[in-house]
Write a structure and sequence with these properties.
This protein is of the alpha+beta class and 161 residues long. Helix content is 37%, strand content 25%.
Length: 161
């Protein structure tokens, strides 16, 4: 079977297009976890909606010992994401120009996961979506619910004064 120039060019073009489409589907994401509820994904700063996690410098008291619960919240998020692809559903922007979104790994909400792990709180001021997850963690004394802590919003307020 002989191919003429047109067929060769067509075959190369189709092969190149298929390669380009496949390459774009499997390319790695540019991801950096900022803290427990904020990530940079492909150059975009994303704040998880409906939850609030402790600040990085925030500590809790765990059986009389100081615990870096803010750092732990970030680590839990990093471990959950691991090498998985993060997909986010944007819900707009906040006053700081961050994208507000709910993000998922393997179709599981990262926000729900963090709240059920006891290292995030349902941010009831803005949403009631994760209240059941928070109730689960509180009732079962999971994560920060087994410690003495300040809510993140109270911690931030105390640092402003």
């Amino acid at each position: 079977m002989f191919l003429n120039k047109r067929k060769v060019i067509l075959l190369i073009s189709i092969s190149s297009l298929i390669f380009f489409l496949i390459f774009n589907q499997v390319r790695s994401q540019e991801l950096r976890v900022v803290d427990g509820d904020t990530i940079h994904l492909n150059g975009e700063k994303i704040r998880f909606t409906g939850i609030d996690t402790p600040e990085l410098k925030q500590t809790c008291i765990n059986q009389g010992v100081m615990d870096s619960c803010g750092v732990t919240a970030k680590k839990i998020l990093i471990d959950k994401i691991s090498d998985n692809k993060v997909e986010c559903i944007s819900e707009g922007k906040d006053q700081y120009k961050r994208t507000l979104a709910e993000c998922f790994v393997n179709n599981e909400s990262l926000s729900s996961y963090l709240v059920r792990s006891g290292y995030a709180f349902a941010y009831r001021r803005y949403s009631k979506k994760f209240v059941q997850d928070e109730d689960y963690a509180r009732i079962n004394a999971i994560g920060m619910w087994s410690m003495k802590f300040n809510y993140p919003w109270d911690y931030r307020k105390s640092k402003k004064n």
